[in-house]
Amino acid sequence: MRANSSKSPKANLEKRRPLFFVIGLTTALFLTILALEWTAPVRGLPDFSSELASAEEVDWIVPVTVTRSVELPAKAEKAPKINPNQFKIIDNNLPVIDLGNELFFTGIDDGLDVVIDPDPVDPSEVFSFAQVESMPIFQGCEDAIGNDALYQCMNVQLMRFIAREFEVSERMMQFSSGEKVYVEFIIEKNGDVSQAKIIRGSDELVGEEAIRVVQSLPDFTPAKLNGKPVRMSYILPINVKLH
């Protein structure tokens, strides 16, 4: 059994497709021709003649560059030739022009200028080993570098010197019990040893011999402060054991 169609036969647009195509083509052609023929109105230029006539005149200054000709330097005059065979005799009796002393002397010389030392050091001041810039150098310590090495080397060399030069007398063996004494002395700016004294210890015999040995020490290379030799005090312990 065949089903009935719900569409009306009049509503079938497939039969009218050629008509729609012709209408669309005609419309497109008309719009194309209309677009090609379309022209915009031409506007005229505004008239500025009245404004220009009322404007004030402006003076324009045009810079002008002038080219100058290059001036050549003048030629140097040639020096006159001197004939070595011709001599000009000058009279020795001509008066001498007095030029005045002000051309040669600007002031009175008061002597040599005084030079002020920027780092003065009191020559009488005595420094300790902790205050000096470089330690004194004892014989045998010339190769030591630095204050610590110089201090240790000097202690060793001094003890060797004391042990070698210290003399124990018969009187010391009889009347002295032996003890440790401390000798303070000053190493002068020229390296000499001076002002040796006992600052600790009561044994007179040991003290006398200790001072004698210290006074016989060879010259030091003095201590320095700010690159200048200064006086430095040093305390040397001497331990004497007799028994």
Q: Could you please describe the fold and organization of this structure?
A:
- The structure is a single chain.
- The chain is of the alpha+beta class and 243 residues long.
- The chain has a domain of 114 residues: Fusion Protein Consisting Of Minor Coat Protein, Glycine Rich Linker, Tola, And A His Tag, Chain: A, Domain 2.
- Strands 1, 2, 3, 4 and 5 form a five-stranded mixed β-sheet that branches.
- The protein is elongated and about 160 Å long.
CA-atom Rg in angstroms: 61 Å
Q: Categorize the overall geometry.
A: elongated
CATH topology of the domain at 126-239: Fusion Protein Consisting Of Minor Coat Protein, Glycine Rich Linker, Tola, And A His Tag, Chain: A, Domain 2
Given this structure, which CATH class of the domain at 126-239 is correct?
A: Alpha Beta
DSSP strand (E) fraction? 5-15%
Task: Give me the number of helical elements.
Answer: 5
Give the SSE layout.
Layout: H1 17-37, H2 49-54, E1 126-127, H3 147-165, H4 170-175, E2 180-187, E3 193-200, H5 204-215, E4 223-225, E5 228-239
Parallel strand pairs: 1-5
Antiparallel strand pairs: 2-3, 2-5, 4-5
Salient structural properties:
single chain, 5 strands, 243 residues, Fusion Protein Consisting Of Minor Coat Protein, Glycine Rich Linker, Tola, And A His Tag, Chain: A, Domain 2, alpha+beta, 5-stranded mixed sheet
